Amino acid sequence: MTRPLRIVAVSGGLQRPSRAATLAEHLLDLIGEDVACEPHLVELGELAPQLAGALWRSQLPDSVERQLVAVEQADVLVVATPVYRGSYTGLFKHFFDFIHQDALVDTPILLAATGGSERHALVIDHQLRPLFSFFQARTLPLGVYATDRDFAEGRVHNEALIQRARLAVQRALPLLALPHRAAPAIAETAAIL
After folding, report:
1. How far, CA to CA in Å, does 91 sit from each of 17, 44, 87, 170?
2. Most C-beta atoms within 10 A of its C-beta, which of 113, 129, 150, 151?
3. Backbone φ and ψ of 159, nearest 5°
4. pLDDT of residue 180
5. At CA 16, angle to CA 45 and CA 4, rounded to 5?
6. What's the distance, CA 67 to chain centroid?
7. pLDDT tens digits, one per residue of 32-48
8. How many Cβ atoms from other residues are within 10 Å of residue 5's Cβ?
9. What b/e string do you get for 47-74 counting C-beta neighbours within 10 Å, with b at 16 or more?
10. Is the pTM of this model over 0.85?
11. Which residues of 95-106 are buried (b: 16+ CB within 10 A; e: fewer)?
12. How many CB atoms lie within 10 A of CB 41?
C-alpha cells in the first residue's frame, strides 16, 4: 500500500481572509477528491512577523523552519499568491528564498494567483513559472487565475473559475502519479563520478 501524497499549499496572501488562501484551499480540496493525500496549508500572512528581518535560514524560528521543511518534503505543491505591482508578493519571494535550491527538483507544482482584474493573469506565466523553473520543479500545465469578483462569502463562487480549477487538477493528475524525486539519484550519480 502506498502512502498518501503530501500536498502542501503555500498562500502568499498577507491578510485573513485571503482570496489566495481560499483559492489554495479550493485546489487542495479538488486534488483530495481524486488522490489520497495529506493536505497542509502554509499561510505566509501568519508567518510574516517571524520572517521579517531574517537574512539566513538559521535566523528563523522553529515554527517557520517546520513550514519550510513541509514545502521541501512535499510530493506536490500548490502555490497561490495575490498579484502585487505586477508580480508575486515580496513575502512570497522571501519565503521561497529560504527553500534549498535542489529541494523542489521535479516536484509537481500547481500555480495559482489572484488579482483585482484580468490584466494581471499573465503573472502565472511571466513570474511564477520562471521562479519555479529556477528550482527545476515541474510546473503543471494549467495555472489558475482568479479576480476579486470570483469570490463571495469567503468561497470560490464563479462557475467558470470552478471549471478552470477542476480542469487544472484533472490535467495534473496523471503527472502526480509519476515518480518525481530525481534529486537523490542525481546526487548519487554525482558522488560516483
Report:
1. 17, 7, 11, 30
2. 113
3. -65, -35
4. 44
5. 70
6. 12
7. 998 889 999 999 999 99
8. 19
9. beebbeeeeeeeebeeebeebbebbbeb
10. yes
11. bbebbeeebbbe
12. 18
